[in-house]
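Same chain as my last thread, 328 residues:
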Amino acid sequence: MKIIKLLLLITLIPFLLMANDDRPPIPYDFLAKKEVQNFINMMVKKHHFKRSYMTSVLKNAKLDRDTLDRYTGRYKVGTTNGTWERYKAHVLDPVSLKKAKKFKKKYYKTLLRASKEYGVDMDYMVGFIGVESKFGEYSGDYRVLDALATLAFHKNRMKKFFKSEFKHLFLMAREQGYDITKLQGSFAGAVGMVQQVPSVFRKYGMDYNRDGVKDPWSLEDSIGIIARFMHKNGWRKDALVAVPTEFKGKRYKGFKTSHRRTLPLTTILKHGIKPLKRFNESKAFLLRNRNITHDDIWLGARNFKVLTRYNNSTSYGMAIHLIAQAVK
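reply #2:
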């Protein structure tokens, strides 16, 4: 569970926020930093990498200013996670939902196998892959080496986490036979169709299509990865996920909304929130999606929390839920 807790912090980013900006990575002398030399020494001694290899890789690494900007200063929505309007525009638009239905049809046999083996709902696996890579269309164009080297060795609010991920990047590359200088992914160093940082791929990566390779860019392998993740985090097949509500007014000004804590259902009902469908749990997450003109308020069940364990965001979980509803 330690890896999952770290994963909550990083908020793995859906495809719509991954495109690199107009400031490409620039040359930087990482080897001049004592911290980098200590890292090389550790990798040589503890993990038995050749010093010449470590030196050549770090010499090749560049400073990614865009990546660093996202994790320095005060957190702002849109830097490492999207607004609800952006999710609606990019993964809940009619074209994307049509692609979701085609994806489900094309990979139905694999989805069905994963659903049965892991006891999870296939429609939510479709939702995960839609949000993370738009069904395989986009998995990031940042060089992972630059992103993680920058975040591992420059001051930022998650430096300790990224330094650990930089270590796992080398281990992952060696285990999988990757050229570490050519791997591409998100600005947070996540790779593949369901955007996993190296430590998470090393834990959850699998050869689900049985071709002899654990491939994070394989959609079939990614279906298995997400199914395993959902199962390990307590998903209950066919159980409630979220229910829409109605309330007076356009903006909700009652209880604090959050996917991190629940409220008694009786308390929620007493304060004028009316579920539009049956909600059969005694407690609920009170969830808000902020639109330009109004708020949507939802009641989230225990399954909803599982969605946010992959990305610590109400909007992220709701996007997956609505894709799943659209493909049922």
